[in-house]
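Extended Data, panel c. Modelled sequence:
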Amino acid sequence: MHNPERNKFSFRMIAALFAFILPVMGFANSWTLTDPATIDVAYSVSWSGTVSYNNCVVMLEAQAPGATTWQAFGSSFPDSNRQVSISGNRPFNVLGSWQVRVVQYPGSGAAVASTRSFNVNPAVIDTIDPTTPSNVTVSNLTYNSCNVTWTAATDNVGVTGYLVFLNSTQVASATSTATTLALSPSTSYTVSAVAMDAAGNTSEPSILVPFTTPTQPVVTLGWTAPSSVTTGSYAQVTWVGNASASTVLMWCLPPSGGAWSTCGGGGGTTNPKTVNGGWTPNQVGSWTFQVRDGPYATSSVLSSFTIVVR
């Protein structure tokens, strides 16, 4: 015969039993963790599953080999269905077997949800050489310099730079695939490139590319001017020489005297310097030219020249 009171009592007993057993039953869980890890590399650990309470904080903790304490490195909160996903990222800086665990901290006390062990191994030593740079090319060749370019090498970890060799002697390094080299006139060279990585591995040298620099142009120092200058006609005057100043000015003074006026300029950072000037003379007679290392009133005379206008 159906007894409603007995059914109510049975339901209450089952509910009470579940309330007692559920915190003890454990957790449906899933770890995301790659074993082994490498020492001192930031390492990600994740866990997802169902906890016993929805009014708790869930912590991700790690214990080093031989240690007795746990260190938290992640936290999260479960949803209304007691589902939780938690992750942490940290370097594991001791070799050996580590423990990681998920712990829930409800008001009634802590409970371990899940524990996982994994090994931390020594750092992997990179022993693989980069590939050899290719297509080494010499361009913009002058008597004292050239540009060198090449196709990038590859590496299992990454190429960090290149060494450039002239006649088997290292003369430059580069982090890109191009460099500029200083050279000597009328000299034969071979150039090659070597790739390197962070572990100190180097590639085989590239194929040697031969080239020869041209002869240095002959530079005539001093003044150059037309042999005959007449009034009303433009004439160019040039001076080539050495100067410590980077800017050199040309000044001229008419036969009648008066004030000096600029009629040209030039300079640069290397010697010899070339200063180009010119003027249209309006007086017959002896014109005086000077090259100075700056404004007339505060500069020194580097050279003087006289041109007779007829």
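The chain is about 5% helix and 50% strand. This feature is highlighted in the accompanying rendering.
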